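Note on ligand handling. Small-molecule inputs were canonicalized before submission; formal charges were left as drawn, and no protonation-state enumeration was performed. Where a ligand contained multiple stereocentres, the stereochemistry in the source SMILES was retained. For zinc ion, this procedure yielded the string shown in the input block below.
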Amino acid sequence: MQDMKIRCVSCKGEFEFTASEQEYYQRIGLRQPKRCKPCRGKETRYLDTDAIIAFVQAVEDKKGFKRDVRLVFAHLVEETGELARAVYLHEREALVKDYPDPSDIGAELIDIIFLASYLADILRIDLNKQIPERMADIRVQYAVENKKGGGE
Ligand SMILES: [Zn+2]
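Structure output:
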């Protein structure tokens, strides 16, 4: 592999995508970057999707699973079932205890974030780009004021 030049879609400047970066991106199954590092640094990162996707990809590779939409979707639904169970057990425990430990619920929610991020990547959806757009839509729908958290 050779170093290559990419034109940044934000500032239109050229930046270097080195051979070792290309190897790394290929190894973890990421597409080549569209923005230069300074522009990437300026974006609001709601989620560190690169880190999440690389992590989930590594786990799925270890399990020998393909990057398959139906498989990941089924897994996401299965995790939603686990979340339902964790919430149910928590609510049941809350009947007898003042402060039941919600850490199981946190773990299940994180699994869902992991799989949702991974599924988005397989479908070439950039969540960090769409989160502010989605916020803007919801804001209009519910006439919520624009305080902080993107949109425009
Ligand atoms: Zn740039």
